[in-house]
Design brief:
Distance between the termini: 40 Å
Radius of gyration: 30 Å
Pfam family, one: YibE_F
Number of helices: 12
Keywords: Membrane, Transmembrane, Transmembrane helix
Number of strands: 7
Protein name: YibE/F-like protein
Strand content: 5-15%
Helix content: 55-70%
Length: 402
């Protein structure tokens, strides 16, 4: 009971401290980069198509004119005539009666101009997230619930801790490493509890992420690639001029976050494997446990390396296809900032994952290898010892032991 109360007390203090940090970190005013006065994004339903833009060839050109009933905000319940641009990135491709949309309401004095912004995807997103959580909880049981909790905690850390502190001028790389440590501690604690296995996995995961960050910075300096060579640098420069965000470090912070999941997976797997080996064969020494961890890790390196490389390729597939279509020369392609950045991200993240294996194996072999396994007596041992059992000598009327 005392141990439970101590755990509850420590957990409560940590939670209160974390919440106070979130509140303190978000107590600031953002600089207004664009004017949104009199403009709001509201939910609406299309009630009528007043002018369609469907051509005879079956394609849509220009804009579509519709009537919508606003469902939220100051104009809830009112109907307005709206314009639907029908673009690929702006507006809805084809509005129909009953379509749920998001509209931009621009109001001045008593007048309001309404434009269709996009399809209302809120319900689809909520249902998909709910389905995702249910599948993980059903298949993973309690572990699945803990995984969802750790994922939510990481999201809160990124949105309400990392972003605000970056906005206030804190080093993006430094605060990202702090968030990685917090996320790793909570996630692995929920999955493995307070144990030597968890400590080993935490040390290996954090070390792997730091290795990925260092490798990216070193490669970036050698190849002349910085955070100012990204495609949206003009927008970032405008943001940097009006805020304290150090945009040059954002690229490397992204590499750290991207490598976290894979390194955590490898770290926990290696630590769990070494603990299981030790419990099954307690006679194995530190060296044998380390070698076994390395052997298991070798099988994981290939798949995890592919995981990160494929993830980065998938994220930039459109750019790669465009480069292929333009038939760029090798020298032009390999020396472009886009390709150099993708190579830096993929290889540095993979390097962090690979080095997580020996680091976790070494720490786990040292810590877990020292754990003493108390072997419980088997029933056969009890039966064998029964033959040597002798009745104690007694004396006295009531047979008291001598």
């Amino acid at each position: 009971m005392k141990k439970n109360w101590k755990k509850v007390l420590v957990g409560t203090l940590c939670l209160v401290g974390f919440l106070l940090l979130l509140v303190k970190g978000n107590q600031f005013e953002k600089v207004s980069l664009i004017s949104t006065e009199g403009q709001s994004y509201e939910k609406a339903v299309v009630t009528k198509i007043t002018k369609d833009n469907l051509a005879e060839d079956g394609n849509r050109y220009g804009t579509q004119e519709v009537r919508v009933q606003v469902k939220s905000g100051a104009y809830a319940g009112e109907e307005f005539d709206a314009v639907n641009p029908s673009g690929s990135l702006f507006g809805m491709e084809n509005c129909e009666v009953g379509s749920r949309v998001i509209v931009i309401v621009s109001s001045t004095d008593d007048n309001a101009v309404v434009t269709v912004y996009s399809k209302d995807r809120t319900m689809a997103i909520y249902l998909f997230v709910l389905f995702f959580c249910l599948v993980i909880c059903i298949i993973g049981g309690k572990k699945g619930v803990k995984a969802i909790a750790s994922l939510a905690f990481t999201g809160v850390c990124i949105v309400y801790l990392m972003f605000p502190l970056m906005y206030r001028g804190i080093s993006p790389i430094g605060i990202t490493i702090v968030v990685v440590i917090l996320s790793t501690l909570l996630t692995l604690w929920l999955l493995g509890g307070v144990s030597k296995k968890t400590v080993s996995a935490v040390v290996g995961t954090v070390s792997g992420v730091v290795v990925a960050a260092v490798a990216a910075v070193v490669f970036g300096k050698a190849a002349g690639i910085t955070g100012y060579n990204v495609s949206d640098i003009e927008t970032l420069n405008y943001v940097a001029q009006n805020t304290h965000i150090k945009i040059g470090q954002l690229l490397f912070s992204g590499i750290i976050i991207a490598a976290l999941g894979a390194t955590m997976d490898v770290g926990m797997s290696i630590a769990s494997t070494i603990q299981e080996l030790h419990e099954r064969s307690p006679q194995l020494g530190t060296k044998e446990l380390f070698v076994s961890g390395i052997r298991v890790g070798r099988d994981m390196m290939g798949t995890m390396a592919n995981t990160l490389i494929f993830a980065y390729v998938g994220g930039s597939l459109s750019t790669l296809v465009v480069n292929y279509a333009y038939n760029l020369s090798y020298n032009q392609l390999i020396n472009s900032y886009v390709i150099g950045t993708e190579i830096m991200q993929g290889l540095s993240g993979t390097l962090g994952v690979v080095l997580t294996v020996p680091i976790t194996a070494a720490v786990a072999a040292v810590l877990i290898g020292k754990k003493k396994i108390v072997k419980e007596p088997l029933m056969q041992d009890i039966y064998d010892g029964a033959d040597d059992y002798e009745e104690p000598e007694t004396d006295g009327e009531y047979g008291e032991d001598v």
